[in-house]
Design goal:
Length: 201
């Protein structure tokens, strides 16, 4: 005795004109019973633009970087911080998010969805770094790079004259300014005659 298994294939086509999360349910039944199965569908827009924005950071403080993505719905971020470290972050409805979502799903004039995200990262040394962010949503991907600058705050400014603070007339004097910390400094010396209060005349 031979048994022949037949699989009946029913195809249905549907167009999804807008992004969103959909659940499709199919019911099949015959004289002997019924069955049901469900499937989650995510309709995505292709990613059309990724931009990065950040102000110069301060040594010892986390730098805040804003990421704007046009298009898409769920996102996967591959971030290279430019200092040898990188991370993988996600922002999805189904799996949750480990990146800060600032705003999402605001429609633009060209009917593209815009999403804004924020990340914070602590750089360890004063330098210039190139951060690269690749964003994907399983139907498209796009990358963007930006140079980030880390500054050292100015602290401990001191000024002194090599001959002391009492100088004989007619003698050149060398004035030195020092700082405990700070980078890319510009010094402006202002010698004002008789500017000390109660200076002898």
């Amino acid at each position: 005795m031979y048994y022949v298994l037949f699989y009946i294939l029913l195809q249905l086509q549907r167009d999804f004109p807008e992004i969103g999360y959909f659940q499709m349910t199919v019911n099949a039944s015959n004289a002997l019973g019924s069955m049901q199965d469900t499937m989650d569908i995510i309709v995505q827009e292709p990613i059309s633009r990724v931009s990065l924005c950040a102000r110069p950071g301060i040594l010892g403080e986390a730098m805040n970087v804003s990421i704007t993505v046009d298009g898409g719905l769920d996102f996967y971020f591959d971030i290279d911080y430019g200092d040898g470290n990188h991370s993988l972050l996600i922002a999805t409805k189904t799996s949750g998010s480990n990146i800060t979502v600032v705003t999402s799903e605001g429609r633009q004039g060209n009917n593209i969805t815009r999403h804004r995200f924020s990340i914070q990262y602590l750089y360890r040394e004063v330098s210039e770094y190139e951060m690269t962010v690749n964003v994907s949503n399983e139907v498209s991907w796009l990358g963007q790079s930006r140079r980030l600058f880390l500054e050292e705050p100015l602290a401990g400014l001191q000024i002194f004259a090599t001959m002391g603070d009492i100088i004989p007339t007619g003698r050149p004097v060398t004035v030195v300014a020092t700082v405990q910390s700070g980078n890319d400094l510009t010094y402006d010396f202002d010698f004002q005659e008789n500017s000390i209060q109660n200076a002898p005349k």
